[in-house]
Write a structure and sequence with these properties.
By secondary structure, this protein is an alpha/beta fold. It is globular, with a radius of gyration of 20 Å. It contains 10 helices and 8 strands. The chain is 40% helix and 18% strand. The protein folds into 2 domains: 55 residues, no CATH class; 141 residues, Rossmann fold, CATH 3.40.50. α1 runs parallel beside α3 and α6 crosses α7. It comes from Aegilops tauschii subsp. strangulata. InterPro entries: ATPase_P-typ_cyto_dom_N (IPR023299), HAD-like_sf (IPR036412), HAD_sf (IPR023214), P_typ_ATPase (IPR001757). This is Cation-transporting P-type ATPase C-terminal domain-containing protein.
């Protein structure tokens, strides 16, 4: 059964669907604290699976053309995301960030944990080749920016969360999102994209 569930998750990921599972467990009332309820962690073992859904977050119109414009101008677009690698790869294909030739290189697509655990020298060596980083943390984004800058690149970063602030600040050009962006992200950026659209980033 585990293999069937994993296959279903992998199939959704490869179709650029973000997979969410729903499960429950029976909990005795005595297990639930009366105080500090906000600090109590729900049990995460012995769960009964209810079902799974795949959520599609399609590329916005014009993003693929904007990515091609960047490429033609000599600007390499990279995707750094918390999504798993298969989902990130599928979305990158849709947006034109990846092509079939890119997949042949192992260092083109990398997991954040792998990049994070490399030495500083090793990160510099692979930084140029990385196009998609999945399962990444905000700190992985910062490490990539730092590695690229040490290689002599001019780096622009987009972000919207508070955790993106270090990478936005470290970048040569930090671009935060005007709608979904937190105040911390906006304060750490050089430019605010009012409509949260990548095509507007290219216009800038």
């Amino acid at each position: 059964q585990y293999n069937e569930l994993k296959r279903s998750i992998d199939d959704m990921a490869m179709s650029s669907l973000r997979c969410i599972a729903f499960a429950y467990c029976t909990c005795e009332l005595t297990m639930v604290p009366r105080e500090d309820l906000d600090k109590w962690q729900l049990p995460d073992d012995n769960l009964t699976l209810l079902g799974m859904v795949g959520i599609k977050d399609p590329c916005r119109p014009g993003v693929r053309d904007a990515v091609q414009l960047c490429s033609a101008a000599g600007v390499k677009v990279r995707m750094v995301t918390g999504d798993n690698v298969e989902t990130a790869k599928a979305i990158a294909f849709e947006c034109g960030i990846l092509n079939a030739k890119d997949v042949a290189s192992e260092t083109t697509i990398i997991e954040g944990k792998v990049f994070r655990e490399m030495s500083e020298t090793a990160r510099e060596e692979v930084a140029d080749k990385i196009t998609v980083m999945g399962r990444s943390s905000p700190n992985d984004k910062l490490l990539l920016v730092q590695a690229l800058k040490r290689k002599g690149h001019v780096v622009a970063v987009t972000g919207d969360g508070t955790n993106d602030a270090p990478a936005l600040h470290e970048a040569d050009i930090g671009l935060s999102m005007g709608i979904s962006g937190t105040e911390v992200a906006k304060e750490s950026s050089d430019i605010i994209i009012l409509d949260d659209d990548f095509t507007s980033v290219v216009k800038v």
